[in-house]
Write a structure and sequence with these properties.
Layout (H helix, E strand, L loop, with lengths): L1 H7 L3 H9 L6 H14 L5 H8 L4 E6 L5 H16 L3 E6 L5 H13 L4 E5 L6 H7 L5 E4 L9 E6 L1 H14 L5 E5 L5 H16 L7 E3 L4 H18 L7 E4 L2 H14 L8 E3 L16 E3 L2 H16 L6 E4 L2 E3 L6
Parallel strand pairs: 1-2, 1-3, 3-4, 4-5, 5-11, 6-7, 6-8, 8-9
Antiparallel strand pairs: 10-12
């Protein structure tokens, strides 16, 4: 820092202000200091800073396995937002997501003296471990349906709203018998999407046309799609489902393959909608109508909420809204 100050012709206190509170430094002075920092290749000593401020400038992130699109996208967005805010991230990825593993992951991060934790492990088994870890550090849980409490804030995409958008779209397209392919029962987001499907049907005076169990994979979507197509063949077009909402895009992909193999036309015989707007979903055959989740916005909100929690703000619920992307599979 002394070398930066000497090259810029300012005091080391001014350099410190540029690094910590740049808005309080005159633009001309700030520009000189930043130019000197760049020229010298200066890097802050974060270990020394932690000793002075009692802050590690580290955020712990617990996430479900990277094979899952939503948690992986959210964790990536959190890392980017933290980096922009001058924080590093320490990420631990869960393999089984059972209660023991979740508790160990939180303990690992607390022992590394992170300033706070953001949990992107949206399974119901997280509750007890999150409550215990929050006694040590503030926490943000990314899960639609988790209840905020004490030092635990909840941030999520409004999954129920996304599901309601899907059902309203299908009804608007003339569909009246709407089935559903569910995600795993122990995922908060899967539960919220199912609540949205059921409540939107009820509001429109329609009954569920069938529920099929899935596990987020294309294989489970194919199995559900095969069963659905056999139901269509047995009941005929006047009684069988004329639309299906899959709670993620991979299951929709499997279902589309099953429909093709069983000779069911999409969307003529069966409208299909997914959820997530995964990369490539516009190139499914046919292009998939789906729900887009604003992961970058979600990541920024997670960090903003955690920083507020570090200032002592009590646990609250915060959400962002998804959008419906209509493509050929449903119209």
């Amino acid at each position: 820092m002394v070398d930066v100050a000497r090259l810029a012709g300012v005091s080391h206190q001014t350099v410190s202000r540029v690094l910590n509170s740049p808005e309080g430094v005159r633009p001309a002075t700030r520009d000189k200091v930043l130019k000197a920092i760049k020229e010298l290749g200066y890097r802050r000593n974060m270990a020394a800073r932690a000793l002075v401020t009692s802050s590690s400038r580290l955020i712990g992130v617990v996430t479900a396995s990277s094979e899952f699109f939503g948690p992986a996208s959210t964790a990536s967005a959190i890392e980017a937002a933290a980096r922009d805010a001058g924080y590093g991230t320490l990420v631990t990825s869960l393999q089984t997501s059972d209660e023991v593993e979740i508790s160990e992951a939180f303990g690992f991060l607390v022992n590394r003296e992170v300033d706070g934790i953001i949990s992107v492990a949206p399974r119901t088994g997280i509750a007890a471990a999150a409550t215990a870890a929050a006694r040590s550090v503030p926490m943000v849980v990314v899960a639609d349906g988790f209840e905020p409490q004490g030092r635990i804030h909840v941030v999520s995409v409004d999954q129920e709203l996304g599901a309601r958008m899907v059902v309203r779209h299908l009804i608007g397209a003339g569909r009246r018998r709407i089935a559903y392919v569910a995600g795993p029962d122990d995922w908060f987001d899967a539960q919220a999407r199912e609540r949205g499907w059921r409540s939107a049907l009820e509001d429109s005076g329609l009954a569920p046309a069938g529920r099929f169990s899935g596990d987020w994979t294309a294989e489970s979507g194919y199995e559900a799609g095969t069963a659905l197509c056999l139901q269509i063949a047995a009941e005929g077009p006047q009684r069988a489902p004329d639309a299906v909402f899959c709670s993620n895009d991979l299951m929709a992909l499997g279902l589309l393959a099953a429909a093709r193999d069983q000779g069911v036309r999409v969307p003529q015989d069966l409208a299909v909608v997914g959820y997530d707007d995964t990369a490539g979903s516009a190139f499914f055959a046919p292009a998939l109508t789906t729900v887009t989740q604003p992961f970058e916005e979600l990541g920024r909100l997670c960090l903003e909420v955690l920083l507020s929690a570090l200032e002592g703000e009590p646990g609250m619920w915060h959400s962002v809204s998804p959008t419906l992307r209509v493509r050929r599979s449903s119209v």
